[in-house]
Design goal:
This protein is an alpha+beta fold and 417 residues long. The chain is built from five helices and 19 strands. It is 21% helix and 47% strand.
Length: 417
Amino acid sequence: MFRKTGLAVAMTLAAVSANAEQAPSMEEMWKIIQQQQAEIKALKGQLDNTDSKLEMTEKKVEATADAVEAAPTGKLAKAADFLNRTTIGGYGEHHFNRFKDKDDMVDAHRYVLFVGHEFRDDLRFFSELEVEHGLVFDSNDGSGDESPGEVELEQAYIEWDYAENQSAKFGQFLIPVGIMNETHEPDTFYGTERNVVEKNIIPATWWETGVMLSGEIAPGISYDAGVHSGLEMADGDKIRSGRQKSAKANAEDLAYTGRIKYTGIAGLEVAATVQYQEDVTQGGVSAGSSDAVLWETHIAYENGPFGLRALYADWDIDAPDGGVFDSSGRDSQKGYYIEPSYKITPKLGVFVRYSEYDNNAGSSTSTADILQWDAGVNYWLHPNVVLKADYTDERKDCSGSSCTDNDSVNLGLGWSF
């Protein structure tokens, strides 16, 4: 029994001794563990990188598929490109006028649509179609009698940028004169009605057909120069009645317009326009031609809530002595106005305007001076939607103590888009 037990103990000690010689040391074990950790980390990094690349690949495949599905082809592509290059806009206004000496009036004064199209980056088309006073024909009785309204093509031109900061217009366009003639959307000016000086002397809104060059001379200084159809006033009437509106217009005598404008200071516009027409009667008066020159200058300034507009316009018509212009005093027609304004809040503004004009200024005995005060408020529901309320005090045909008043209270709604 003792011999067997001793033999077992001896064999066990031998085995332990042998294993002790084969087992690594603690230092070797640590190195092995570190090596295994490095291998595990490297394998994990490779796996994460593979997953990331797989995810990116899946996203690119999905994006490509979406693009392929969304990309228009054929006629659809042409339609999408056409819509992207075509713009639609417009403006309109409704008025209510409560007059002192005549019937009150509600008027859908204007409804205007703009359509434009860009053929390429340097070549574009623009048009403006207007309906005035709600309707053109009264069809209630079936007679088709004319109503107070008109349908008018105000603009239809091609604009070409033929050089850097230089462009040309071909077709029917607004004449570059005054403050309102080119920019007359109702949300851009104070008062329900457009000011009487630019309406009756310039006369806004005024368009012609021809060619107009525009561009920048120096930073803040621009020019416009054109040749186009002109006025026709064979009867020696007021300037406004001479507009032919490019409607089978008599073009025996063309007109020439030039303007210089300065906008080099933020909020400031100073401009001067001159127009010359050799014969505003278009050969309609046998006594001889009546050449006409328009001089106009204005300033428009905005500084924070404060605004100021001032304008002067003067027509000098060199007519034969005793002719239709000379005898009526309409060889000189002129006017001016000044309009300060102040925005109490970004939405609420107030203004006052003094205007004076005369379509018979050439007569030493004329009593046709129009003196007018306007004062009121604009409230912008949106930068392009405005409510207006104002009061007009107008005096005309003043001779001594005898004057005819034409006062009114005016309410307006206007919008543009």
